[in-house]
Amino acid sequence: MHVPEEIRAEAAALIDHHALGLWKPNDADRRTAVALFHFLETGLPLTSEQIRSALAHTEPAADMTGRLLDLLRGTAGLLDDAPVAESPAGRDAIDHVCLLLDALALSRLTGR
């Protein structure tokens, strides 16, 4: 999933499912989102290296929800292709992923 429209659609779907309570991210999902949110707080654009670093250094990928893991891997692939990532569709897709990361980072840990 490196196509901007697919990434945008998946991020939008996860945002909606999270907002409606249909998808409950686990603690590994949230910790990964928080790690990436800290990168976003610097005001610099999200990079594929930041995503891969967060995936490698937070929780084992097996503990993450499959859809979020696939979305982040796809987003890293999109960011590797600078011309596509800088296109209007690419920027829109990345913006949606960032909105999802914001929502997850600001949500509560499971059981708290």
Topology of helices and strands:
Blueprint: H1 4-20, H2 27-41, H3 48-57, H4 66-80, H5 82-85, H6 88-105
Helix pairs in contact: 1-4, 1-6, 2-3, 2-6, 3-4, 4-6
Summed up, what is this model?
The chain has 112 residues and is mainly alpha-helical. The protein has six helices and no strands. The mean pLDDT is 88.
List keywords for this structure.
single chain; 112 residues; mainly alpha; 6 helices
Regions with little confidence, pLDDT below 50 for 5+ residues: none
Q: What's the alpha carbon Rg, rounded to whole Å?
A: 13 Å
Order of helices and strands: HHHHHH
Q: What global shape is seen?
A: globular
Structure description:
- With 112 residues, the protein is mainly α.
- It is 71% helix and 0% strand.
- The chain is built from 6 helices and no strands.
- Helix 1 runs parallel beside helix 6, helix 2 (27-41) packs antiparallel against helix 3 (48-57) and helix 3 (48-57) packs antiparallel against helix 4 (66-80).
- The mean pLDDT is 88.
